[in-house]
Task: structure prediction
Amino acid sequence: MVKWQIFRNFIGENQLVMNKIKPLDLVSSTDADALNHTAKVSNKIETKRSIFEELRAFASSVPDFRRLDKGNLQHRLDDIIMLMILGRVAGHIGRAQIIEFGSHNLNKFLKLGMLKNGVPSEATLCRVENGINDMDMADRMRHFAETFLERLLDGCRIMEIICVDGKAERGTVQENGRSPDIVSAYSFNTGITLATEACQEKSNEIKAVPILLDKIDIAGKIITADAISMQKDIVDKIREKGGDFLIELKANQRALRYGVEDRIEGHSPIYSYTEGPELAHGRIETRTYRVYDGLDIIADKEKWGGNMTIIEYESLTVKKSTGAMSSEKRLYVSSIPADKPMLGAIVRNHWSIESMHWGLDFNLEQDKIKRKFPKAARNLDTIQRIVYSVFSIWKGLRKKHSDKKKGVAEIIRHVSMSFTRLIRFLSQK
Result:
């Protein structure tokens, strides 16, 4: 039983302390001071609950879609959600694997006060995925992210960068033959998905991004996005909410793109710098960034709310095995003043959301999982993004530098060895 002491509820522990305190009308000033101190300590503890406790709070906050007044409901909704989360954290992806995981560790679930009526069936998991309101689930994920965001950003010396990008749910195909898209806001500084917004067609991503930005606080933060977000409404939204932006410039804004290309050759950059050569993934890459003031380069500044900075990115790649060379150029526009150093680093930081999307597919097999309905696909996406955020939260809360550098696959291998390791992992505060 000793190994299960880490799972004791904080409220129960705090209640033991409070029961020893006399009523206020019977205490001296010294006792009153002690009570005040105890309250402060209690509040401090409550504000720093473990990852496991916050996951329980998230699961309990999801509205139950079932008719609670009728029928024989054997399983609590929060228990089912926790089973799906814990199973995936431990590397069990499909419904059958999750059920097997729950059955194998049923006694341990019972000790945690969960799954009192046994493990739900695969049909039950399917009904839950299809029944939960996907917007409610995504909204509760946003609150879960906010719980840890401030803690992880504490002491961060750089401005927070929020990356915005869409991802197709390729395991689901709609009647129009396309997979639903989910646009997400991802915190580069913490590795947490902050919020998501669903859209059914790729073109609707333009409409989804402003809605997504309304869900999060972007004041004083930098928003990075790919070319599809280079729209007047989106740029205006970012400026109105007090944020800055860095967005790739492509042919979807033909006048702006080709106008910049024509005029940039006649101007000298305010500054430029080169990174590399660096060896990674069998390639030797050299990156050069040139930063320009768009005052004389961008013709239609009024449309975009004022002057913008232009970043030209050029990469030279040599494949180590063959010696084959390739190069590419990209253009970015930003509201950040041109005299700010190392704007190219923000360009590279945006690629972190693409890395996270790759991780969802590689480590959690998101694209391989088939779901018939878009609602189920989005609910699955929300759970998987929470799981992926959990790994980043754990690394962010750890003090050992070696722990912070561990990859998701390595962590999954570690926690999957036993249920005890899994819970100890989630007990991080």
User: Anything to note?
Assistant: Residues 1-35, 38-45 have pLDDT under 50 and may be disordered.
